[in-house]
């Protein structure tokens, strides 16, 4: 059965922005986040052909979690302006590939993906979540796997147990103890990953842990848990993803239907020369007629040079720049 890929667009945008530095067009427009996003998307399209795709994004607005905890995400720095400016461009690329975009005020991308994944699994479909957020582990099942775009590692229910020594259903309890700095999930002060792993492996859940709190050893850990009980219970509620986000229809998800004209225009504007050829190859579109010209160390499609003659004329007329190509004709 073909998988349906549900992508956390906000996560990939953030990761790309901070992983790729000093990347911009000749006019100075920052493109690092877009470049990383497109690179990831093309890799997914190549490795999962004929599958259906959807991308979810956060919306810049308070969510229901802010109502539960006023400090929620307050420690996270605002989205950098250079990244914020690239989000609309990323969405433009996604639309150019004919991929459905989901976003909903009051909810995070994770909640949208959880809602869609739950409905798809209910319909007997297989889902691959593309995200590096730890809270997504709670969505694992026989029909749901997670691909981390940072490592390209796929996690399923079996590999999760092998790594953490407890089932994925207890992942929310684990995160409730250790917290999540990036999302300002408080957790229990003084409880680290090793201690949390041991506690969840022994007690299975936060509720069971506190019902049997007298069994916790050493006493120092027990005292920390008692002092942080309210934070632990609140943290668990913050970590649990919503599976009933309103106004979301999974019926809109379908295989990519790229608009090559739109994609070519975007990539030329962003100076992503190599991505257009990769896109055409992915969708079986011949590139044999597009002659290539090397201007020094830069290889550019001849069609691009013809369409932007004013831009490339100085390079073409510079006698110091070596020009080589294949099948070049007088034009």
For the sheet with most strands, the description reads: 6 strands, mixed
- State the strand order across the main sheet: 3-2-1-4-5-6
- The CATH superfamily name of the largest domain is 5'-nuclease
If you compute it from the alpha carbons, what radius of gyration comes out, rounded to the nearest whole angstrom? 24 Å
Average pLDDT confidence is 88
Number of helices: 16
SS strand fraction? 5-15%
The count of domains is 3
Give me the CATH fold name of the largest domain. Rossmann fold
Q: Could you say what the CATH architecture of the largest domain is? A: 3-Layer(aba) Sandwich
Structure description:
A six-stranded mixed β-sheet has the order 3-2-1-4-5-6, sandwiched between helices. It has a three-stranded antiparallel β-sheet with strand order 8-7-9. The relative contact order is 0.12. The longest helix has 16 residues, at 32-47. With 331 residues, it is of the alpha/beta class. Helix content is 45%, strand content 11%. The chain has 16 helices and nine strands.
